[in-house]
Amino acid sequence: MAQLRYHSKTRAEYLIATGRVILAAFFLLAVGLDPSEPSRYAHITYGILSAYLGYSVVMAALTWRRGFAWGMLHLITHSVDLLVFACLMFLTTGPNSPFFVYFIFILVCATFRWQWRGTLWTAAAAMSVTLLLAWYPSNLLMDQNFELNRFIIRIAYLTVVAGLLGYLGAYEESMREILAMLSQWPSETLPEEPGEEGHGMLGHAAAILRAPRVVLLWEEEEEPWLHLLCWTAEGSRYEWKDPGVFGDIVAEGLEQASFFTREAGSAQALVVCNTVAGLQQRRCAPLHPEFVRRFDVTSACVSPLDGEKISGYLVALDRSHLTPDDLVLGGIVAHEIAARLDHALLLKQLQQGAAADERLRLAHDLHDGLLQSLAGAGLQLATVSRLIETDPAAARENIQQVQQLLASEQRDLRTQINDMKPLFYRRKTEEYGLAKRLDELAGRIRRQWEIACSVTCHTPAPRLQRSVAREIYFVVHEALINAVRHAEATTLRAEISFDAQWAHISVTDDGRGFGFQGCYDQDQLSDLKRGPVTLRERIDALNGKLTIDSGERGARLDITLPLMELGG
C-alpha cells in the first residue's frame, strides 16, 4: 500500500496570514515614527508598505474565511513576500537595511510550508538578493557609509538561521511522517501463524523505527510457547520456541523498561533506559547471550510488550544512531503491537467460543428435533408390528404417519443444513410456518402417546425470521416432550402470545410435576441445578427467562424469549 503523506497546512497558513498583517502594520508604524529611514525613495517605500498592508489584510481575510490550502497560491504569496523584501532592501540601505529582519519571517513561512527544502531555496534567494544589492552598480561595498562588518555578520546570521530552521523543518517533516505511519497501521491482525500478515505489521513497525531488522518475541498467558517473529528487508520468519531458550531475555531490572545499547555483546555495555524514575544509565549485559548470538546483535532498542493476554519484547536491531526519543517511539509502537496481538488472541477465542456455541445449539436442535421424532417413530413402528396382523388398516395408517413424520424431519434437516452454509451457497427456502408446525407437533403427540395435547396462539404471530421461529418451535417441542415422557401427563396445553419485543410461552400439564414443589425462576433453578437441563440451557443461550411452578398435580412453565435478541 502506498504510504500517505501529511499535507494539511491550514493552521500554518492561519499563522502566516496573521503574522504578515502584524509585521506589515508594525513596519509602517515604525517608519512613520522614525522618518530618518528610508532616507531615499521615501514616498515609494511608504506606498509599498501601505499596499503590502492592504494585501496582507485581504489575504488574511480570505485565509480565515475559507481556510484554503492551494499549493500554487502558497507559491505565489511566497514570491510576493520575497519581492517586497527585495524592493524594501533596494529602497533603503541595501544589506544594512532595517527591513533585513523581514527575512526571518520569510524563512519561517518557507519552513512551515515546505520544510527544509523551502528553507534552503528561500535562504538561497534571500542571500542572492543581499549579495546583488552589495554589488549593485552603485557598488555599495565602496560606499563610505557601508558597514562591512555588519554585512558579514548578517550573511553569517542568514546562514545560521537558515540552517536552524532547515533542521527544524526536516525534524518536523520526519515527525509528521512518523505520525502518519502510526495512524496507518495494517488493519489485519496476526493469524495463528503470522507469515505474510505478520511481515506486514512488523515491516510497518520497522519503517517507523528506521530499523534494518526487528525481532518480536511474545508469550500468551495460556500457552507454554515463546512466539518468535523476525523481520528483515528480505522477508520474515516465524517460529515457536521453548520459553526458556533465551532465559530471561533481558537483564534483571530491565524487564519493564525501554532501553537501548550500542554494544549488546559486552558484559559491561552502556545501557540507556527509560524507567519509572526517569532516564537512567547503567552498565551491564542487557540481553541474554544466547539471544545476542542467535541474532548477531550489536546495537538494540528494546521495548516491552505488556498486553492483557500477552507479554514479550519488541527489539529493533542495527540502528547506527540511537537517542532517548527512540525509546518513546519504540514504546508507542510496542503498545500498538501488543494491542494487535491481544486483539488477535481475543478474536481467536471468540471464534472458538462461537464454534462451541454453534455445536451446542446443533446438539440441542438434534436432541429436541430429530432424535425425539425418531424415538416417536420407533414407538409407532412398534405399534405397527402389533397391529399388522390384527388390524391391518390401523397399521397402514400408522405407517403413513411415520412416513409423514420422516418426510417432515427430512425437510427440517435439509433446511438446517442449508442454514449452516455460508450465505453465498444457501438456497432460498420457504418461510417457516410456525403455527402450522406447532399444530403438526400437537397432532403427532396426540397420536404417538394417545393423550390430549393442544397448542394455541392467542395473538397472531408477527413476521418472524426463520431462526426465530425455529427456536420458538424447539422450546415448545422440548417442553411438551419432557412433560409427556417424564411427568406421565395425560393432558398438555401450550399457549403462545407475542408483543413487539417478546414471545410469551406457557406450558401446563397434569402430570406428577418435577422433583420439587414450589415456584422457581431461572437463576434459582440454575443455582439448585433443578428443572429440565436441556430446556434451561437453550433458554439461557437465547437470553430468555424461565419460571417453573411445580406441584403434585402437574407443573406450569412460563417462558419469555426476546425477539430482538433472537433476530439479531
From TrEMBL:
Domain Signal transduction histidine kinase subgroup 3 dimerisation and phosphoacceptor: 358-422
Keywords associated with the record: Kinase, Membrane, Transferase, Transmembrane, Transmembrane helix, Two-component regulatory system
Keyword Transmembrane assigned: yes
InterPro entries per UniProt: HATPase_dom, Sensor_HK_TwoCompSys, Sig_transdc_His_kin_sub3_dim/P
Domain Histidine kinase/HSP90-like ATPase, first and last residues per copy: 470-563
Keyword tRNA processing: no
Transmembrane segment boundaries: 12-32, 44-64, 119-136, 151-171
CDD domains: HATPase_UhpB-NarQ-NarX-like (cd16917)
MF term (GO), any: kinase activity
Name under which the protein is recorded: Sensor histidine kinase
Species of origin: Geomonas diazotrophica
